[in-house]
Design a protein that fits this description.
Number of strands: 3
Strand content: 5-15%
Radius of gyration: 13 Å
Number of domains: 1
Helix content: 55-70%
Number of helices: 5
Largest sheet: 3 strands, antiparallel
Order of helices and strands: HEHHEEHH
Length: about 80
């Protein structure tokens, strides 16, 4: 059970998957990332990914980075 929870929190998604989740183009996702309007990314080799847990929290916050950051800090 503990490993299952740890595995779920470590799921990473690509820009293409993220764009589909947000109903935007991948290019727009990259622009939003550059503008600091998306959660921080994780580098895996030369790939850039987002943590699924961060994206789910971001969506629960109605894509509001201030709320997202406040909830993220509170959960630490």
């Amino acid at each position: 059970m503990k490993n299952e929870i740890a595995t779920q929190s470590c799921v990473l998604v690509s820009c293409k998957t993220l764009a589909k989740m947000l109903s935007i183009s991948p290019r727009t996702a990259w622009r939003l990332r550059s503008a600091g309007k998306l959660p921080k990314t994780v580098s895996v080799g030369s790939s850039i990914r987002w943590k699924m847990s961060d994206i789910e929290l971001f969506l629960q916050c109605n894509c509001d980075m201030q709320r997202f950051n406040a909830l993220k800090e509170a959960s630490k």
